[in-house]
């Protein structure tokens, strides 16, 4: 599964003679970001890994704090979150890992190698 040399995309072959499907890494980042923010206890994401294309689409805030690396059909995700005070860091992190992995595998058809979660802060508001 080669990477497109013109952009950060992954190319998937569809059924025989049907052509190919290209998925931008930014799309994978948005899927991961949306999945992570659905987890109870996650206040927001931090960072700005894929800001340029996302900003053009009006989705900048959804992909902040996500770094996606695609190698063939395997994806490695690094995500930085702010957790709400009072929630268990290990529990929320495990739920984020599971939710992100399931979302990417189900929506993009890619195999998730790992989801690394960094706790960047605690929201006490």
Protein described:
Helix 1 (25-37) packs across helix 4. This protein is 35% helix and 35% strand. By secondary structure, it is α+β, with helices and mostly antiparallel strands. The strands form 2 sheets. Strands 3, 4, 5 and 6 form a 4-stranded mixed sheet that branches. A two-stranded antiparallel sheet has the order 1-2. A hairpin with a 6-residue loop joins strand 1 and strand 2. The longest helix has 20 residues, at 89-108. The termini are far apart.
Structural class assignment? alpha+beta
The residue ranges in which pLDDT falls below 50 over 5 or more consecutive positions are 1-7, 48-62
- Given the structure, what is the number of helices? 4
- Number of beta-strand segments: 6
The largest sheet is: 4 strands, mixed
Give the SSE string: EEHEHHEEHE
Shape: elongated
Question: What is the CA-CA span between the terminal residues?
Answer: 45 Å
How many whole angstroms does the radius of gyration measure?
A: 15 Å
Strand content: 35-45%
Assign a percent range to the helix content: 25-40%
**Average pLDDT figure:** 80
Based on the model shown, name its key terms.
125 residues, alpha+beta, four-stranded mixed sheet, two-stranded antiparallel sheet, elongated
Secondary-structure blueprint:
Layout: E1 9-13, E2 20-24, H1 25-37, E3 42-45, H2 51-57, H3 60-63, E4 66-71, E5 74-84, H4 89-108, E6 111-123
Parallel strand pairs: 5-6
Antiparallel strand pairs: 1-2, 3-5, 4-5
């Amino acid at each position: 599964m080669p990477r497109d040399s013109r952009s950060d995309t992954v190319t998937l072959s569809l059924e025989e003679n049907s052509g190919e499907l290209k998925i931008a890494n930014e799309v994978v980042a948005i899927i991961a970001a949306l999945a992570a923010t659905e987890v109870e206890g996650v206040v927001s994401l931090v960072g700005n890994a894929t800001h340029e294309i996302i900003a053009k689409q009006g989705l900048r805030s959804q992909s902040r704090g996500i770094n996606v690396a695609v190698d063939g059909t395997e994806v490695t995700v690094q995500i930085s979150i702010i957790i709400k005070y009072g929630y268990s860091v290990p529990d929320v992190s495990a739920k984020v890992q599971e939710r992100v992995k399931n979302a990417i595998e189900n929506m993009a058809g890619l195999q998730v190698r790992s989801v690394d979660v960094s706790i960047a802060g605690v929201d006490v508001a």
